[in-house]
Specification:
InterPro entries: 3-OHacyl-CoA_DH_NAD-bd, 3HC_DH_C, 6-PGluconate_DH-like_C_sf, ClpP/crotonase-like_dom_sf, Enoyl-CoA_hyd/isom_CS, Enoyl-CoA_hydra/iso, NAD(P)-bd_dom_sf. With 684 residues, the chain is of the alpha/beta class. The two termini are 47 Å apart. Bound molecules: 3-hydroxybutanoyl-coenzyme A (3HC).
Length: 684
């Protein structure tokens, strides 16, 4: 029987089955809550029904509260009201789980008397990723099931666990075969007819002395600046200290505080921004894509190797091309080492390593990419080198193959122009380490075909990247803004700040690392050519001294054996000498000046990028910076952050900076326009 547009109630003998079908992810919207509440009431009233199964159709069990309803007046029954209805059921209720039981979805399953799942299901409380805590009893019930330690880990990390793990910790009562969830759940329910109706809330929750404090301390770095993990910890502490219903009331208060706070707003923006990025102007849904079953990667260095791993991880065979046998050998052994490191962390099995290595075939013959559907080059970042390679690839690759460049700065159209198939050329800009970083800038050339673009967008999903389509310009979105920040960081150091002052402020802002520490990590000599070096920047001076960063024991900082950094007196002297050489009298530079010049230079450049159409929307820029450059997600990305500051305030500050520090801060016309219209970047 159809209960409402998203809920059905059927019966299989003595077992009632409540089925929800609310695509795409069965979020617990008002319609879903109403439907389930009504279906439950009918099943309770039906004397022939002895047990109830709650199941979803489509790709997943309930994936959580409906995030789009947050901040709007609650339509009853609320999720908590629905939970009371289920928890107080007069007959056993079995939640039947497939896909991802997340957030409010898992919290609803936790008020059922039992949970069964298929092996491919995942269960988790990811609210912290949205800057929230589980607000429907998750902080109270999960520790009662899986233990405090595991629950804190699951809730603060937000990563779902596989059904088999869930079964081993008692979160799932039975695994049923894939594809047979409904039958399995009904059979399980039948076995439980007449069994006592136990509630998770009645189980004990206690803490060992010092247990929570130890967890706090062990994770201090991971939780830095974040509001949600601390709220989760406090709520679990409440659970052990006060009666269940009071702890539930406190949990609700904490949830509402987080929901009204700036971090959750930013993190929810990030969630939707990532999904928006896949929607590209001029690329209608359903645009045909091309199958990518074989990939060629040219260059087995750090970048090429990392790129190749992404495809092997997704089960796609790769032809990895190098020019010299020793370089190829080295590249493949680095890949193997990376896999072995993952295996040591328990993320891969020995068999999986061999499976993936078997997908990676090395060769010294470029001709061997002839059968590939996609060839990605990751060779030296120089136009003539890339053009020469593309001429050769154009001759070798099959006619419909896509040719991609991993260039991070160069003009994609100039690369495409040397081929006979510019419409099949695209930029796929990976970020180092390419097997880890989630961002993929997909550079659309002037002639790139929509089918090729659609294929790249889909491919990003296949290899589990966040793909962002960007236009062709120097440095695209990410590196162009980074260059604007670097220019300020360098100018600040020339004028009077020390590299570690800049790093301290940027770290304090929320980045994991400041620009100079980052350069030391990457290597100061990347892109530096000794023969052409003219001591024209502090970086060049340090390189000429043999200070190339962490790998040489020092750069801006000195490093001990364990790579702990201390400000280097040698670098300090180099900075002072360099200012003198420029004829600059060094002055005191405040932290506020450092922050504003570095961050606003980025925002202003981002505005220009948006105005020029290099990025389709402001949130795409945020997605780039969060997934590729370490912008703190809880600040939502540079454009979201600027909107929150208020564009009129940003404009005023840019004008003041322009007066003091010159044209780099001339406000983008877009900012002027938006302020005049009373709008923000989000409306641009
Ligand atoms: N509410 C509303 N919409 C949601 C949603 C949610 N909880 N979860 C996903 N969606 C939407 C997405 O925005 C997307 O919409 P679009 O097609 O218009 O862009 C669509 O569903 C499909 O989502 P994905 O593209 O992400 O699909 P995937 O298959 O890649 O991933 C997923 C599915 C793993 C469920 C993923 O969407 C996800 O992680 N969702 C968020 C889950 C979550 O955070 N749940 C907790 C919510 S907070 C909560 O429950 C509070 C409670 O404690 C009170």
């Amino acid at each position: 029987m159809q209960i409402n547009e998203v809920t059905r109630l059927d019966r299989d003998d003595q077992v009632a089955v409540v089925t929800v079908a609310s695509p795409p992810v069965n979020a617990l919207s008002a319609a879903v809550r109403t439907g389930v509440a009504e279906a439950m009431a009918m099943a309770y009233a039906d004397a022939e029904v002895q047990a109830i199964v709650l199941i979803c159709e489509g790709r997943t069990f309930f994936a959580g509260a409906d995030i789009t309803e947050f901040g709007k007046p609650v339509v009853e029954p609320s999720l908590r009201q629905l939970q009371v209805i289920v928890e107080d059921a007069p007959k056993p209720v079995v939640a039947a789980i497939h896909g991802t039981a997340l957030g409010g979805g898992l919290e609803l399953a936790l008020v059922a008397h039992y949970r069964v799942a298929v092996p491919s299901a995942k269960l988790g409380l990811p609210e912290a990723k949205l800057g929230l805590l589980p607000g429907a009893g998750g902080t109270q019930r999960l520790p009662r099931v899986v233990g405090v330690e595991r629950a804190l880990e699951m809730m603060t990390g937000g990563e779902p666990i596989p059904a088999a793990d869930a079964e081993s910790v008692g979160l799932v009562d039975r695994l049923v075969p894939e594809g047979a969830l409904r039958e399995g759940a009904i059979a399980f329910a039948r076995e439980r007819i007449g069994a006592p109706l136990e509630k998770i809330r009645d189980r004990p929750l206690s803490l060992r002395p010092g247990q929570v404090e130890a967890f706090r301390q062990a994770n201090a770095k991971r939780f830095r600046n974040l509001a949600a993990p601390e709220a989760i910890i406090r709520s679990v502490e409440d659970g052990a200290a006060i009666p269940f219903d009071e702890a539930m009331a406190r949990e609700r208060e904490l949830f509402n505080e987080l929901l009204a706070g700036p971090q959750s707003a930013a993190l929810r923006h990030v969630f939707f921004a990532e999904r928006q990025a896949a929607k590209v102007d001029g690329l209608p849904k359903g645009t045909p894509t091309r199958p990518i079953t074989h990939v060629g990667v040219i260059g087995a260095g750090t970048m090429g190797g990392g790129i190749a791993m992404n495809f092997a991880n997704a089960g796609i065979p790769v032809m990895l091309v190098e020019t010299r046998a020793d370089a190829l050998e080295r590249g493949l052994s680095v890949i193997r080492r990376n896999y072995e490191n993952s295996a040591r962390k328990g993320k891969l099995t020995a068999a999986q390593i061999e499976e993936r290595m078997a997908l990676l075939q090395g060769t010294l013959a470029l001709d061997e990419v002839a059968a590939c559907d996609l060839v990605i080059e990751a060779v030296f970042e120089q136009m003539d080198v890339k053009q020469d390679l593309f001429r050769r690839l154009d001759r070798i690759a099959k006619p419909d193959a896509i040719l991609a460049s991993n260039t991070s700065y160069l003009d994609l159209d100039a690369i495409a122009a040397v081929t006979s198939r510019p419409e099949q050329v695209i930029g796929l800009h990976f970020f180092s380490p390419a097997n880890v970083m989630r961002l993929l800038e997909i550079v659309r050339g002037a002639k790139t075909d929509v089918g090729v673009l659609a294929t790249a967008v889909e491919l990003a999903k296949t290899i589990r990247k966040v793909g962002v389509v960007v236009g062709n310009c120097y440095g695209f979105v990410g590196n162009r803004m980074l260059a604007a920040r670097h220019a300020q960081a360098e100018a600040l150091v020339n004028e009077g700040a020390m590299p570690w002052d800049v790093d301290r402020v940027i770290h304090g802002f929320g980045f994991g690392m400041g620009p100079f520490a980052m350069r030391d990590l990457v290597g100061l000599d990347v892109g530096w050519v000794r023969e052409k070096s003219t001591a024209s920047t502090v970086r060049e001076v340090l390189n000429e001294m043999g200070r190339h960063g962490q790998k040489s024991g020092g750069g801006y900082y000195d490093y001990d054996d364990r790579r702990n950094a201390t400000p280097s007196p040698i670098a300090e002297q180099a900075v002072i000498d360099f200012s003198a050489k420029l004829g600059i009298e060094r002055r005191a530079v405040s932290d506020d000046e450092i922050r504003d010049r570095c961050i606003l230079a980025m925002v202003n450049e981002g505005a220009k990028i948006l105005d020029e159409g290099i990025a389709q929307r402001a949130s795409d820029i945020d997605t780039v910076w969060i997934n590729g450059y370490g912008w703190p997600p809880y600040l939502g990305g540079p454009m979201f952050w600027a909107d929150r500051q208020g564009l009129p305030a940003i404009l005023d500050r840019l004008r003041a900076l322009q007066a003091a520090h010159g044209e780099a801060f001339r406000p983008s016309p877009l900012i002027e326009r938006l302020v005049a219209e009373g709008k923000g970047f989000a409306d641009a």
